[in-house]
Amino acid sequence: MSKIRFNTRRLSDSMNLSRAQVNSWRLSRHHLAKRVRKGQIEKVVSDLCGVQAQVLSYAGLAIWARVEGIAMQDVQDALWKHRSLVKTWCMRGTLHLISASDLPVYVAARKATSVVKRDWLTPEIDVEERKRIVLAIREALDGQILNRERLADEVAERLAMSASVRKHMLSGWGNLLNPAAEQGYLCFGPSEGSKVTFVRPDQWLGRWDEPSGDEAWKTLLRRFFSTYGPATHRDIGHWWGLRPDRAKMLMDYIADELEEIEFEGQKRWVRREDIDLILDADNVRSVKLLPSWDCYVMFYHPREFFVSQNYRARVFRKLEGNAPVLLIDGVAGGVWEQQRKSGLTEVRVRPFSNLSSAQRQLVRDEATGLGEFLGTNVEVSILS
Fold it and tell me: pTM for this structure?
């Protein structure tokens, strides 16, 4: 692997990037400076390096915050009608929405860094049996759309599985389905009422052009640094779910494209081709309502630049992910919550400090747009 090189031509005082410069860059790259047009849902998901989708409605809100004039039905249509998005297990073994055209790239990258997750193992299933189950899942889904029960039945017939192994196949945690997704053999199909279904991605999408692991990682690292940079190998590890030492090795794939800078005095890395764009970026002023598990919040580093220690526990919760965030000019300006009541959505916003009259109006505008996305009227309260 190559060694990360420095471009000394640029190591000067001008390369100590300020918070305003970095936040303006990140907001623009995350499409939070200005919403894109309605037809660009797939592009937004691609630019964000996927959208976490443990709760699909939160994923929908993350997309709404970046795309103008959409409703939840548009996200559903992108998944099940147009098939431009795919729902599957991906980074960190967690459910995500991925651009359909990007899915083979993510699969190739996952294969290249494959780790047998502790959550995927049970005492009665060894690694070899898990491999047989994964292959049986691929065979069972050939030309089929199957819910969990039917998929478990099909695999059980092929392998004569025990009742306990079948139980693991039915687990909502995807203990035995996630490894199949890692190999590109499974993704989610349209639900049957309250039951989820699964399909073969190559057949569901009608195409499958999988690159090598090296090429996949080059593609994803370039995108990650351009969207989340300035970044470090630890940020990559946090995003993908890798130990820091393994993540550091990955940076060598694009070492000759990176340059070290200082972000408010901290050493970090950017793509060399992005430096002038960051320096020349317009100063972005924005107010946004971001949902739980939003990728801008989750992967904003260093976190002390995003929210002060006094309010950190109100934003980052250990088991529930980040709280919904009132984002002001790229940092946490408060938290918010919503509650549905018979056709009305109550939105309660709790700023960390007093808002200007202009900011309060922007909060109300965002809440109105939220109501249009949800298809309800909205009542907004800005609490002290």
Answer: 0.92
The partner residues of 377 in beta bridges, in order of sequence, read: 344
Q: Residue 171 carries which DSSP code?
A: -
Amino acid of residue 187: C
Q: Using one digit for the tens of pLDDT, what is the confidence trace for 214-266? A: 999 999 999 999 999 999 999 999 999 999 999 999 999 999 999 999 999 99
pLDDT digits (tens, 9 = 90+) for 7-48: 434 444 448 999 999 999 999 999 999 999 999 999 999 999
Interior CA angle at 378 toward 317 and 370, to 5°?
A: 60
Going along the chain from its start, the domains and CATH numbers come out as: 8-16+211-280 (1.10.10), 306-382 (no CATH)
Joined tokens for residue 277: 């764009």
3-class DSSP state of 71: coil
Q: Which residue has the tokens 């990007």?
A: 102
CA–CA distances in Å: residue 136 to residues 153, 159, 179, 182, 370 = 11, 8, 12, 14, 43
For residue 332, what are the β-bridge partners?
327
Taking only the tens place, the pLDDT of each residue in 104-151 is 999 999 999 986 555 555 656 778 888 999 999 999 999 999 999 999
Q: Coil, strand, or helix at residue 227?
A: helix
Cα→Cα distances 52→48, 49, 255, 294, Å? 10, 10, 28, 7
Helix (H, G, I), strand (E, B) or coil at 152: helix
* Cis amide bond preceding 230, omega within 30: yes
